Amino acid sequence: MKHLMRSASLAGVAAVALALTACSGGGDDAGDSATVAATDAQAEITYAIWDENQKPAIDQNIKDFNKKYPNIKVTVDLTPYQQYFTKLQTQGESKTLPDVFWMNGPNVQLYAANDLLQPVTGLVDSGDLDPSKYPDALNELYTFEEEQYGVPKDFDTVALWYNKALFADAGVDVPTDEWTWDDFSEAANTISDKLSDKGVYGVVTELNSAGQSSYYDTILQAGGFMISDDGTTSGYDEPESIEGLQFWADLVESGASPSLQQLSDTKPNIWFNSGKAAMFTSGNWSVAEMKDSKHKDDFGIVRLPKGPEQRATVIHGVANVVAADSENQAAANAFLSYLGSEEAQRTQAEMGVANPAYDGTQEAFVDSVPSFGIEVFLESADEMAFPYPISKNTAAWNALENELLPQAFSGERPVEEVAKELATAMDEELAKE
Amino acid sequence: MSATAPTRARRGHDGWWPLLFVLPTMFGVVLFYLWPIVQTGYFSFTEWGAFGGQTWVGTENYRRLADEPDLGTAVVNTLVYTAIVLLGIPIAMFVASLLSRPGLRFSGFYRVLYFMPYVAMPTAVAMVWRLIYNGDFGILNWALALVGIDGPAWTSTPGFALVAVSIVGLWTSLGFAIIILSAGLKTIPPELYEASSLDGATAWRQFRSVTVPLLTPSVFFVSVITVINGFQLFDLLYALMGQGNPAIQQTQSLVYLFYNEAFLRNDKGFAAAIAMVILLIVGAVTLLQFRMQKRWVTYA
Fold first, then answer.
1. What is the ipTM of this complex?
2. CA–CA gap between residue B173 and residue B87 (Å, rounded)
3. B268: distance to nearest CA of chain A, Å?
4. Which pick of A2, A97, A151, A220 has the fewest CB atoms within 10 Å?
5. Between β-strands A385-387 and A313-315, what pairing exists: parallel, antiparallel or unpaired?
6. Residue B22: closest CA among chain A residues belongs to which residue?
7. pLDDT tens digits for B76-124?
8. Which CATH class is domain A158-315+393-432?
9. Which of B51, B82, B228 to mutate to test the interface with A (most CBs of A within 10 A)?
10. Residue B11 DSSP class
11. Domains in chain B, start-ordered, CATH in brackets?
């Protein structure tokens, strides 16, 4: 029965998974003065990222970096976004964070407040980094209690992607920069009706697990907000915010959009990429994927439609950060500075994987796929962008959004009821911060 | 398993040698199984900061768990899943006896075929099944449409999702059960079949009166393992349904609940309490199975 006993002890597996994450040793604080490695320095560092589409450009960045620093070996650790921050938090707990890694707005304050990130102030003082080359909004996003922790890598705004061929099939005029919510809904419904026998829908967007490319924008367009400017109260129970949520619930109900089940089985980007949806609200991060689509010649991009109150898109950007307890701080800093440089960001732009943060390199991104009209994302950033909603523990109320809002979009429960429940629960979380 | 070894010398006579031999194994068991269980027990009485650091909160986590509305759902889902996967044992018994019929050609090949899903990575298996189950473009709904049935979105509709996951679980576990049961069949003395056929027993009667009773020790073993694995349902569910699935709340298993609290909500003290509850349930069910075996397991 020995085999049986061994298998029975598998029952402790769940317990093991938990306990392993608890082996935290005490790390010592990193000094404030940042050092950058000499060009002949020898080191091995890890760089953690979450977007597979950007991997080729990152590999190119590393190759170029190694021309100057031939003996610093950089290993890329790619984890899909869905698991990225789960893994990172566990690594943070066990003091095994990668040397250099991607950070986003919702998480930066959590990591900075727990002293897990190295401030970049030292690099700025030593002249290895010049924050004035990046948009102010991004520098601010990565500043916590007067200290900047991240080097902006790129920025995203959201726009309306459309498929010209499907509009032509349905006999509907293609979207323009001047569209309103009504134009948008009408076109989406007409296309779904006319092309239903081909299984084509009018519009798809991410409704199950994030609001950046869908309801965050419509809430702002309606004049509502997700979180108050001081970050202490939820805006989800405001009538304008509810209007912004109702917009998507109506599109799902009328069949202009696939149901939430369908969007879970087949993700929105796949519907659009494979020519099964005529419109797709998404950010410039989709360029990397859509430029390889079979239907890429039919794709175009215009501004998001104007809501009852105003035009709006959220703006967000990813930054590179160095772990405070990295054992190869000098090498990590050298790589961080390189990633923030004009050359590295231009490479990313030219390869069409990201809209770079470095002043003046965005043109290369716009030109990477001329037929798309990528400049819309830059214009939107200048003319109609609102900061991405964050607080000290953004993840806590993001989880509430993901749990509750799909019930409203699917029509399972009235939008207003769900929005009010969300606002109450979110206020409780914010009070804990 | 059913030991037929001659009576062994009493342990005392062997001195400390046997202990020395089990030491390496025991070291691993203590370090990787027992110690984490003790630690988790301790953690279940604490609250965690965002990046570690525990504060003692007494039985607070267990009190919260008692009020947790998802706990009941998770227990029921886990039981339903386990029950469906257990249905695989009779199927495996049938297949195993077909495979061990004398004179069957390519029996080794069939055995490998049945065993393959068990050694394949659950994630890889789940990816393939996700495509099969896809509500709009899956082959399953395409086949159903041929006979005029409009199939649901299998992995994202509450109710259907649990059945869909269970069927894949059953399919995956089949190979393991078949191998164990085939081995069990080999231990049945052929004389019993000869004797019974001389007495005029049909093949069906032989299966019922010889094969089944003498196979019960193996069936017992397989069912204990299946139940334990069933209670640990996680990776298959996670990979098959994915995150941001509208049906996940109604479909989650106990270990999924644990994962959600520990790694998504980062409430690790509360998650430790869930882990302890899982451990207790699995322990209790396994104990019950061992108690019940006297009633139905025949050791030759």
1. 0.80
2. 11
3. 8
4. A2
5. parallel
6. A2
7. 999 999 999 999 999 999 999 888 877 888 888 988 888 888 888 888 9
8. alpha beta
9. B51
10. G
11. 55-296 (1.10.3720.10)
